[in-house]
């Protein structure tokens, strides 16, 4: 498309905060004359990329929109009745516009700073309550990545909960969704668990010696089994009983918690979350109280603030990888928070009667279809079902039916040559059922008028207990009320719509509207993940392009888009390394060296991949201690599998020795895994592949603009050198026929869907298309400039813990506030909470160094915003000085009492030794744009002691 003229508006100038004048000014303050000079002082010359990135020329926003639209139309939207854990549904428009398409919700971070995250914490608590009610189990998390990995997490959980003699067999019913079984196989094999797949009704469980069992409810082919007797056998053998359940079916069926399940897992996709060709969707895991400490993922709990008022926070964080590292309950970091919020809101909006009504409608559609099919003489295999029918015929019949379906633009599940599955959903209309009956040779409408069957759910499996009884699910059913409720919650949260969120290592950059808009196009979000390849040509082109862009930017030769978070990428990459070693007869290479400064997901993923973690020290400058590395690499040379290294380091510097580090590992037979979380400092300047790494993951929700969604979604594709390409994750062709992912040597699937959370790959693709190579390189340079500008301005007030060889930091810097503990009794928490009074989200606290703050501004923040943040930090330093000098009390000062809520400072009573004004309006900018924290400081210890993880009764708020 050649145009005679081009719009002058370039996207890169919108994405990058500082303009040319601001850049020049900031450079002057750093005594530099160009960005190039800054890069020379920051990135070691030995690793610099000598040529520009080879990416297509940048598109304008309007051009991108047109291309995205065109590609969305190259995906063909058939009516899909494929089921297998994915169902089309209706996203209530009021939720779509005000949450899914609203930056006030999608640009939030994981709610670590609870006081300014009460809105999403409440939304997530609603989600947990909904899951708990529907499954009949008291505790639920929020959330896991997908149903298959949730099943795998439950297997890990069951393994960890064993008492007495250790067993290593896990049983899974053959009636589970096939992709669930495949992900289980991958996970089990890596850590030496023997997975036995069989018929739950026939297996001799007692002699199996299994530590747990998983069944699907209803089964993947729709069959409805009563698992009570089986559950008793599992318990008699001392095992954990796990039930994968369809969340909507539980509105009509006896919930797992009432028939003996210890754990229930599943997807909440069909609660208003678009299919999106596989994701993102939130998976759930619910369990009994006694197992809560082994529960993976995030748990929201009810606690109290400094004044004893109810307030919410993330509970039991000491189970997580951040603290427990290789002893963590899981490697889950980024999960699916935004999707959990949406699913929870779907339950708030519909309420118990609405949810039951939808379940009944879906069930009735299945019963009408069943009646019509019986009338046509078609054989139904099962006697009872919820929404899925299993049809059997001769091979010739099946061929004929599938052909007839295709000609009507209908997708049916081909189970095998003689079996077909049909799953109906919330969007299925009587006309759809008539059309389906037409596929089987009848006059659809006539057949439909025939007999709808009565519900086949046996009395023993009919739900009698109530659910969603809490007031939250019973008062926001008009759109006006719903809109106001969502707005109320949004107003309690600080997001990128208020101010910069300078979280080091998290890369909270702009999530541009033009990048976000395509994901809700029907051509992208209504595609079932298992449609035939020919119906997803638009997506396939996006994958092709994105894979080639990522390969070019990382310097690698092949890419897998399957892992749906950075930590999943770590896991997939380490498995690929293990397979590679195995292929060379080196299966005994199982030692993984990890620097002490590494992110907690690194050791947690290594353990999941069956590796043994050896920690290597860091020196005073924050670099890997190369002598220690050489010693450890040599010591373990016969068993060395890999090094995991983050670059630039988690300390925010470009280590000069990185090439040497990589060669030490290679000389000792290991592979180098690069954690790509800090790729935002590398793009266009250097590449992991050139530096000497063999594989790296790319957190698309950091460097490539997928919004953080309050704790997810994200994507963590991995890029690998040619020798590892054969070992990238494959995907079973029995589930989704495709040429792309059928590599026979590859590690098994690591996600439920072939391309993980496919629909949000579009966001990163759009970003790269609009930025181009030059734009991305400019962004990297400005990200480094912004960090150095902050280091320059704040360096005089707070020690900068680490700098590179020539005094520069990379794209983030660590501020030391540890000395104030002695001089003023002030701790890092006090500074973080005081920042809220100034309208800012704290930087990353205590990672990678306890008691410090790590600031990452990103390229998207303008100089004005950087200055506002620096002014706030300097002002806080002055407040600390006043404490040091005795002008403010050591015990009663604005830092210790932060954050200050409106009701605190407006109350008639004010007992503090400083003024109200200083409490709430510490900086001039707070008078114009005040963000009021809705609650006072959280009492953390109390929240973990009395764990409450579902909505408390309203009286508790009074
Ligand atoms: C964010 C991060 C991870 C984990 O990535 P997720 O996408 O959250 O799973 C790993 N390592 C580092 C250094 C990170 O910053």
UniProtKB/TrEMBL annotation:
It comes from the Bacteria. InterPro entries: GcvP, GDC-P_C, GDC-P_N, GDC_P, PyrdxlP-dep_Trfase, PyrdxlP-dep_Trfase_major, PyrdxlP-dep_Trfase_small. It catalyses: N(6)-[(R)-lipoyl]-L-lysyl-[glycine-cleavage complex H protein] + glycine + H(+) = N(6)-[(R)-S(8)-aminomethyldihydrolipoyl]-L-lysyl-[glycine-cleavage complex H protein] + CO2. Residues 14-440, 456-729 form the Glycine cleavage system P-protein N-terminal domain. The modification N6-(pyridoxal phosphate)lysine is found at residue 702. It holds the Pfam family GDC-P. Residues 779-900 form the Glycine dehydrogenase C-terminal domain. Its EC number is 1.4.4.2. GO terms for molecular function: glycine dehydrogenase (decarboxylating) activity. Keywords: Oxidoreductase, Pyridoxal phosphate. Its cofactor is pyridoxal 5'-phosphate. The glycine cleavage system is composed of four proteins: P, T, L and H. Belongs to the GcvP family. The glycine cleavage system catalyzes the degradation of glycine. The P protein binds the alpha-amino group of glycine through its pyridoxal phosphate cofactor; CO(2) is released and the remaining methylamine moiety is then transferred to the lipoamide cofactor of the H protein. HAMAP family: GcvP. This is Glycine dehydrogenase (decarboxylating). It comes from Pendulispora brunnea.
């Amino acid at each position: 498309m050649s145009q005679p003229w081009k719009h002058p508006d370039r996207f890169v100038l919108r994405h990058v905060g500082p303009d040319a004048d601001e850049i020049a000014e900031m450079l002057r303050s750093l005594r530099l004359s160009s960005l190039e000079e800054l890069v020379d002082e920051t990135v070691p010359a030995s690793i610099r990329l000598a040529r520009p990135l080879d990416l297509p020329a940048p598109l304008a926003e309007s051009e991108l929109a047109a291309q995205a639209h065109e590609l969305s139309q190259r995906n063909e939207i058939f009516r899909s009745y494929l089921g297998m854990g994915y169902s089309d549904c209706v996203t209530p428009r009021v939720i779509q516009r005000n949450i899914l398409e609203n930056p006030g919700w999608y640009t939030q971070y994981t709610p670590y700073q609870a006081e300014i995250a009460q809105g999403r914490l409440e939304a997530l608590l609603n989600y947990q309550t909904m899951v708990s009610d529907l499954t009949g189990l008291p505790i639920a998390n929020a959330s896991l990545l997908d149903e298959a990995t949730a099943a795998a997490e439950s297997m890990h959980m069951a393994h960890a909960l064993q008492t007495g003699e250790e067993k290593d067999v896990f049983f899974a019913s053959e009636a589970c969704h096939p992709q669930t079984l495949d992900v289980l196989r991958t996970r089990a094999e890596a850590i030496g668990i023997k997975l036995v797949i069989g018929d739950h009704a026939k297996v001799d469980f007692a002699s199996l010696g299994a530590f747990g069992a998983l069944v699907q409810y209803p089964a993947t082919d729709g069959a409805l089994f009563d698992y009570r007797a089986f559950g008793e056998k599992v318990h008699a053998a001392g095992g954990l009983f796990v039930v994968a359940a369809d969340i909507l079916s539980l509105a009509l069926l006896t919930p797992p918690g009432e028939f003996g399940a210890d754990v229930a897992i599943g997807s909440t996709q069909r609660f208003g979350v678009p299919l999106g060709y596989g994701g993102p969707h939130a998976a759930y895991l619910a369990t009994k109280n006694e197992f809560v400490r082994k529960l993976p993922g995030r748990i929201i709990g009810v606690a109290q603030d400094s004044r004893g008022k109810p307030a919410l926070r993330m509970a039991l964080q000491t189970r997580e990888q951040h603290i427990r590292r290789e002893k963590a309950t899981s490697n889950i970091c980024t999960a699916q928070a935004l999707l959990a919020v949406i699913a929870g809101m779907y339950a708030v909006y519909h309420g118990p009667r609405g949810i039951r009504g939808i379940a009944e409608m879906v069930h009735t559609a299945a019963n009408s279809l069943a009646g019509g099919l019986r009338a046509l003489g078609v054989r139904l295999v099962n006697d009872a079902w919820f929404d899925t029918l299993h049809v059997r015929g001769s091979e010739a019949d099946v061929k004929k039916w599938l052909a007839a379906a295709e000609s009507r633009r209908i997708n049916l599940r081909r189970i095998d040559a003689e079996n077909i599955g049909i799953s109906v959903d919330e969007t299925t209309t009587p006309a759809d059922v008539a059309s389906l009956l037409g596929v089987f040779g009848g006059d659809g409408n006539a057949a439909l008028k025939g007999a709808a069957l009565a519900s086949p759910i046996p009395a023993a499996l009919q739900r009698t207990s109530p659910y969603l009884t809490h007031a939250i699910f019973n008062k926001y059913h008009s759109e006006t009320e719903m809109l106001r409720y969502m707005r109320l919650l949004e107003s309690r949260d600080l997001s990128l719509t208020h101010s910069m969120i300078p979280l080091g290592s998290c890369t909270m950059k702009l999530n541009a509207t033009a990048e976000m808009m395509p994901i809700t196009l029907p051509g992208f979000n209504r595609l079932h993940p298992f449609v035939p390849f020919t119906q997803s040509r638009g997506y396939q082109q996006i994958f092709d392009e994105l894979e080639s862009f990522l390969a070019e930017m990382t310097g690698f030769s092949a890419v897998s888009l399957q892992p749906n978070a950075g930590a999943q990428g770590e896991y997939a990459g380490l498995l690929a390394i293990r397979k590679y070693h195995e292929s060379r007869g080196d299966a005994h290479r199982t030692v993984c060296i990890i620097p002490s400064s590494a992110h907690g997901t690194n050791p947690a993923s290594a353990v999941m991949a069956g590796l043994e973690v050896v920690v290597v020290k860091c020196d005073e400058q924050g670099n890997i201690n190369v002598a220690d590395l050489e010693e450890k690499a040599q010591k373990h040379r016969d068993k060395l599998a890999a090094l995991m290294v983050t670059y630039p380091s988690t300390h925010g510097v470009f280590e000069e020795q990185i090439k040497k580090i990589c060669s030490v590992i290679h000389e000792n037979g290991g592979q180098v895994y690069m954690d790509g979380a800090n790729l935002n400092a590398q793009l266009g300047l250097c590449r992991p592949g050139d530096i000497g790494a063999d594989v790296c993951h790319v957190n698309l929700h950091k460097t490539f603009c997928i919004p953080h969604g309050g704790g997810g979604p994200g994507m963590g594709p991995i890029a690998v050198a040619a020798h590892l390409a054969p070992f990238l994750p494959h995907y079973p062709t029995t589930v989704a026929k495709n040429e792309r992912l059928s590599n026979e040597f590859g590690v098994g699937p690591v996600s439920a869907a072939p391309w993980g959370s496919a629909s949000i790959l579009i966001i990163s693709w759009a970003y790269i298309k609009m930025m181009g190579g030059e734009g991305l390189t400019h962004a990297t340079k400005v990200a480094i400039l912004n960090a150095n500008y902050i280091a320059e301005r704040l360096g005089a007030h707070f020690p900068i813990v680490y700098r590179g060889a020539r005094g520069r930091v990379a794209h983030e810097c660590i501020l030391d506030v540890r000395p104030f503990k002695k001089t003023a009794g002030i701790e890092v928490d006090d500074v973080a909470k005081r920042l809220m009074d100034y309208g800012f989200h704290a930087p990353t606290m205590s990672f990678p160094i306890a008691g410090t703050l790590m600031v990452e501004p990103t390229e998207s923040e303008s100089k004005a915003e950087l200055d506002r943040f620096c002014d706030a930090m300097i002002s806080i330093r002055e407040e600390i000085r006043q404490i040091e000098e005795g002008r403010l009390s050591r015990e009663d000062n604005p830092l210790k009492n932060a954050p200050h809520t409106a009701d605190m400072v407006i109350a008639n009573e004010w007992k503090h030794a400083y003024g109200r004004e200083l409490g709430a309006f510490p900086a001039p900018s707070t008078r114009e744009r005040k963000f009021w924290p809705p609650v006072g400081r959280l009492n953390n210890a109390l929240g973990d002691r009395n764990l409450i993880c579902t909505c408390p009764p309203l009286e508790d708020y009074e």
